[in-house]
Amino acid sequence: MSGVETSNQGTGWNDHDTPYGTIHSYDGDNSSGGTGGNAGNGHDGIGDSTKIDIPTTKEYNGVLMSMCVNNLKKHEGFKNKMYKDTGGNITVGVGHLLATAEMAAALPFKKTATINQGHGNAEDVDKSVSAGDIKAAFNKYAADSSAIPNIHLTNDAVISECIKDVQITETGLRSLYTGYDAFSNDRKVALVDMGFNIGIPKLKSNFPNFNAAVNRGDWPTAAAESHRTGLDDSRNPRNKDTHDQLLSDK
Fold first, then answer.
1. Per-residue pLDDT tens digits for 135-175
2. Whether 152 contacts 81, CB under 8 Å
3. How far apart are CA 42 and CA 156, in angstroms?
4. Could you give the residue ranges of the DSSP H alpha helices within 47-100?
5. Residue 102 to residue 130: CA distance in whole angstroms
6. What is the pLDDT of residue 26?
7. CA distances from 67 to 61, 70, 116, 184 (A)
8. Which of 69, 127, 143, 200 is the most buried (most CB within 10 A)?
9. Strand, helix or coil for residue 117
10. What does the mean pLDDT of the chain come to?
11. In the prediction, which pLDDT does 160 show?
12. 17, 1 in Cβ contact below 8 A?
């Protein structure tokens, strides 16, 4: 996505209140009349360096959820529009897989429309997209990778889906590790990343030594057994981050 991704300081960066807490993101240089997007209802401005802060609710601890979401964002990216991952799968948001057109249509995609206000003034507004149009866009993109759908999710919607994905992953992790809820936050972040990235079924079947080490609290062995093949370690520190997080009791 476009936007400032190399720094989160300076002109144009501001704190924005959203349903998930304050997000520090880029919304343009307001002092010179720029509008840009905002971190909540907009659909740009969240880059690699943006920190997403999520408050605690009755359903989850905000500190841990923020850590998980930011860790996934670091490794998966944050994209408001559909894209195809390295395996050619249609994805959106923070690595959220859209396996079918129906899954895409279940999300609140928007389309930007320009409203002419007269006297040379115009305003861009987001309008909802029908389920039929979302499915059509998905199917066209599935058949033609150059036909990237011109529809998007707001930043709030992306964060909301990521929170749901973390919760689903944690449910699966609790079925694998009886002591999961007592683990340190860093270790939970590492496990969420592995469960999300490769899926709970593959984590269960393909990492028996890792799982056994986690269940007996042998974190050095778990860290050594956590390495995932297929990741480009020279470009993505995902394996290293997971290794280090598993060794942390914070």
1. 999 999 999 999 999 999 999 999 999 999 999 999 999 99
2. yes
3. 8
4. 62-76
5. 12
6. 39
7. 10, 5, 42, 12
8. 69
9. strand
10. 86
11. 96
12. no
